[in-house]
Specification:
Blueprint lengths: L9 H25 L3 H29 L8 H35 L1 E4 L2 E4 L8 H29 L3
Helix pairs in contact: 1-2, 1-4, 3-4
């Protein structure tokens, strides 16, 4: 029994908590950006990126050490709910990581040093791709957080 009180392993619980933290950081970072708090936005989104990378590392460690977790519920639930959910979650996660890579690369390319501080460029003539794509990233990442939580729920809360 791990720290969330289920039959999940410690690595599975850590993965879920890091997933939740990354979602909260993402929403916080976006809110700070919308409020015009550029420096706070930058550092919060840097932490979001680190949390996503930490999630990926812990998840890969879990898979390498423990292998895939078998679905403990009835075969009809596995076929009709769990497997489609895992497929959607996997597609969302892969798409999100690809989009995150693009958004971080474009955000970093927008950085300038003004008065000794790194800030996002304010030149409206410059292509600001990360501002165009952030709503998609936030939506995809929050959907990934929700579907990841539902996968965990299927494995450890409802059928575990």
């Amino acid at each position: 029994m791990a720290f969330l009180g289920t039959d999940a392993s410690v690595l599975q619980d850590i993965t879920l908590v890091v997933l939740w933290v990354s979602g909260a950081l993402n929403v916080t970072g976006v809110a700070l950006g919308k409020l015009g708090r550029r420096r706070a936005h930058f550092y919060t989104m840097l932490c979001t990126t680190a949390a996503v990378l930490a999630f990926l590392m812990v998840y890969l460690l879990k898979v390498l050490q423990e292998g895939p977790t078998p679905f403990p519920g009835p075969p009809e639930v596995r076929a009709r709910q769990y497997l489609p959910l895992v497929a959607v979650h996997g597609a969302l996660a892969i798409t999100t990581v690809a989009l995150l890579t693009f958004i971080v690369a474009t955000a970093v390319s927008d950085l300038q040093v003004i008065d000794g501080r790194r800030v996002l460029a304010l030149d409206p003539a410059k292509d600001r791709y990360h501002h165009r794509f952030w709503p998609y990233f936030v939506g995809l990442w929050l959907a990934t957080v929700v579907t990841g939580t539902l996968v965990y729920g299927h494995l450890f809360w409802w059928y575990g």
